[in-house]
Design a protein that fits this description.
Length: 253
């Protein structure tokens, strides 16, 4: 998994600021680019144009992960479960991470506004996976349980738009499809963002979003898409109920 070759990054000569701002997103960009090149990127369609949507839930909150963590973890997921947890949650479950297991580093904002680092682990990387799953399942059922019975079609190859619809589907449980032509064009447009993140500081295009900035925009748009979709489904349901009541009244007259 995305270990960045060390379980103790701050015991190296790398500063915390450099680790958070460059090393983590740089590594994730490499992971995503390799997945595209190897044909295993989770956001690309199969031959039928359908994309296999797999949510991964944050066991601490019960919500589906945001894009910057979701996509790298989907690439690393394999046959593992659809939930990850931090050391804190794993400890609460009365178990511990299997020695030698490597988690996915991610950033979070501390109360003082500075950026901290932690790791996500799948339950299968702990000595008692079932205990971790049991501890997290109620939160996931409560906060990640809404499922959208709808198929979303990606019609734009613009990276932000494309990934926003994909992430929205992951978060809502909707199905998603896209034409191979649009997916191919998306890869062409998305790859420069990854390459720019991987590039050394002096070689970077400072006018281009970092991977973190880009993924934040993806999440904002994905959440907006889901708000609109759930509102649309609710309206359709209310309309269907009203029509059903009208029909019942006509039959009874």
């Amino acid at each position: 998994m995305s270990s960045l070759d060390t379980n103790k990054p701050f015991q190296t000569a790398v500063s915390e600021k450099h680790f958070n701002g460059y090393w983590i997103p740089n590594h994730n960009a490499k992971v995503i680019k390799a997945a595209i090149e190897n044909g295993v990127a989770p956001f690309l369609p199969d031959q039928s144009g359908m994309i296999s949507v797999k949510a991964i839930y944050n066991g601490n909150t019960g919500y589906c992960l945001n894009a910057k963590d979701l996509i790298p973890l989907q690439i690393e997921q394999g046959e593992k479960s659809n939930v990850v947890a931090t050391y804190n949650t794993i400890n609460k479950a009365g178990t511990k991470v299997v020695e030698g297991s490597k988690g996915l580093f991610y950033n979070y904002k501390r109360e003082d506004g500075t950026i901290g680092t932690a790791q996500f682990f799948f339950p299968e990387q702990t000595e008692n996976p079932e205990a971790v799953k049991k501890l997290t399942e109620e939160k996931i059922r409560k906060n990640g349980g809404r499922k959208l019975n709808k198929t979303v079609e990606i019609t734009s190859a613009e990276p932000e738009e494309y990934l926003a619809h994909y992430v929205a589907a992951c978060k809502s449980g909707a199905s998603v499809k896209v034409s191979p032509e649009i997916a191919k064009e998306f890869v062409t447009k998305f790859t420069p963002i990854l390459d720019n993140q991987i590039a050394k500081g002096a070689e970077r295009d400072k006018e281009m979003d970092t991977l973190g900035q880009f993924m934040f925009k993806v999440d904002v748009k994905a959440n907006k898409i889901n708000s609109e979709l759930f509102a649309q489904v609710k309206k359709e349901h209310q309309k269907s109920q009203a029509q059903g009541k009208k029909k019942d009244m006509e039959i009874s007259m």
